[in-house]
Specification:
The chain has 460 residues and is an alpha+beta fold. The protein has helices spanning 2-10, 13-38, 44-61, 67-80, 153-193, 208-263, 269-300, 313-323, 325-330, 350-367, 425-435; strands at residues 83-87, 93-96, 126-135, 138-147, 309-312, 334-338, 345-348, 373-380, 384-392, 439-445, 450-458. It folds into four domains: 13-39 and 153-193; 44-147, Beta-Lactamase; 209-297, Signal transduction histidine kinase, dimerisation/phosphotransfer (DHp) domain (Helix Hairpins, Orthogonal Bundle); 305-458, Heat Shock Protein 90, CATH 3.30.565. One of its GO terms (cellular component) is plasma membrane.
């Protein structure tokens, strides 16, 4: 519940600023109301004016020492909210208002006497005025007093300024907190711009600044991944140069050597046939390497276009198995069709999908155990078709299973010529499947020592 309230109140920076302004306005209004209520009748000028009015009203009719005059004096005192008393020249009270206690009032003024030289000397918050009056034609003194706190002009100034200062302080504290966070984000962005990708900003609050910090963190993460990908691609580029140089140089060196032997006149005819056959094999291998490289480069280009049509994929699989029948028999590998479908029509580029299955089946023949089986399974769903080719691998580094779709990666780390291949067969498979909007992945079962290649193609 608390988190929900925080989200409502502070989920937006503009909303937070609006709440701050409303809060500051409320504080100002409350302080002003308190000031107004607390300040009623407390101005010195007001007290003096009212005391003078009380004097004028009482001096006109209180001229004798009688009950009626004392009653009038009491009415004037109540009307102006003052204590009033008249003394003779010795300070003896001869007339008084009823709010002056018979035994002494709340200001500890004695009932019958007021010290003329030091009236209310023990009181710190009494406003009073003394006027000369005539009572029974004798000179007397009218005392008008009130228990009140008289505020100085500085007090009024501070009372007005205090709410403003408080409002500014509230705004400053809350805005400064946001400003410091913005400054921190700016400094951390500088760190990111200096190249420290992956650096994360501390995410605070629930407003737009929090969203900004999150997006900067996501950007930092993505940039780091992009840089790592670029570094990996750069590494693969060097590996490409090294591997293709090795793969092309080896048959080329052999080819040149045998051609030199052929050119020697001392060489017998039977040797010439032998050397020419070896040269022909190496030339074919060079052509295969160059063809794979050319095809992969073409597939990776953005200008590649697919010639799609409605084709029976089961028929393509059958054709590929027929073309590889002799090769699989020589390797003592049996392909098992673990599916009953005779027709699965998909909108595909037939030549390229044929290349997919041909590369996968060829790869299975090269790296399967002698005398083992390669199972071909098909799973259909309303939206896609999944082809699974599973074989018993001869040898495989478990931690490098996911690398088999990388360019120029071969299961034979030594790149022995006895195991033919450019290392581009499965990357070509991946490129073709991706162009069709499908996906390809592998699953390794270490217990059964099998490797399954999954090709998923969409039906539409």
């Amino acid at each position: 519940m608390i988190n929900r309230i925080k989200k409502i109140l502070f989920g937006s920076l503009s909303r937070s600023l609006l709440i701050i302004n409303i809060l500051a306005l409320l504080v100002t209004i409350v302080a002003t109301v308190i000031f107004i209520e607390n300040d009623k009748g407390e101005y010195p000028e007001t007290l003096v004016n009212k005391a003078n009015e009380a004097y004028v009203e009482s001096s006109r009719f209180v001229t004798r020492k009688s009950d009626s005059c004392e009653e009038y004096l009491d009415e004037v005192a109540k009307l102006n909210n003052f204590n009033m008393a008249i003394t003779d020249n010795d300070g003896q009270i001869i007339l008084k208002s009823s709010n002056v206690s018979k035994t002494g009032n709340k200001n500890y003024i004695p009932f019958s006497y007021i010290d003329l030289s030091h009236p209310f000397k023990d009181e710190k918050s009494v406003f009073y005025r003394v006027y000369e009056v005539k009572v029974d034609n004798e000179k007397c003194y009218l005392y008008v007093w009130k228990n009140t706190t008289i505020k100085s002009s500085e007090y009024y100034i501070w009372f007005l300024v205090a709410p403003i200062i408080l409002m500014i302080a509230i705004i400053y504290l809350l805005i400064n907190r946001k400003a410091r966070y913005i400054g921190k984000i700016a400094k951390e962005v500088e760190i990111l711009s200096s190249g420290d990708l992956g650096y994360t900003i501390n995410e605070k609050g629930r407003d737009e600044l929090n969203v900004l910090a999150k997006e900067i963190n996501n950007m930092s993460k993505n940039l780091k991944q992009m840089r790592e990908k670029e570094q990996e691609e750069e590494k693969q580029k060097y590996e490409l140069i090294t591997n293709i140089s090795h793969d092309l140089r080896t048959p080329l060196t052999s080819l040149l050597g045998y051609l030199e032997l052929i050119n020697k006149k001392s060489t017998q005819d039977e040797d010439i046939n032998k050397y020419s056959n070896i040269s022909l094999d190496n030339a074919k291998r060079l052509k295969s390497l160059i063809d794979d490289l050319f095809e992969y480069s073409k597939l990776e280009s953005k200008d590649i276009k697919l010639n799609k049509s409605e084709i029976n994929v089961v028929e393509i699989i059958g054709q590929c198995l027929g073309e590889l029948e002799l090769e699989s028999k020589n390797a003592n590998i049996d392909f098992i069709r673990d599916f009953s479908e005779e027709e699965i029509i998909l909108n595909i580029d037939g030549d390229k999908i044929a290349r997919v299955f041909q590369n996968i089946f060829t790869n299975a023949i090269k790296y399967s155990k002698k005398g083992s089986e390669v199972n071909i399974e098909i799973k259909e769903s309303p939206s896609e078709v999944e082809f699974i080719v599973t074989n018993e691998y001869r040898e495989l580094e478990k931690d490098k299973v996911n690398k088999i779709f990388e360019r120029f990666y071969r299961g034979d780390a030594s790149r022995n010529l006895k195991v033919e291949g450019s290392g581009l067969g499965l990357p070509i498979v991946k490129s073709i499947v991706n162009l069709h909007g499908g996906k390809v992945f592998v699953e390794c079962d270490e217990r059964k020592e099998t490797l399954g290649v999954h090709i998923v193609l969409l039906k539409s």
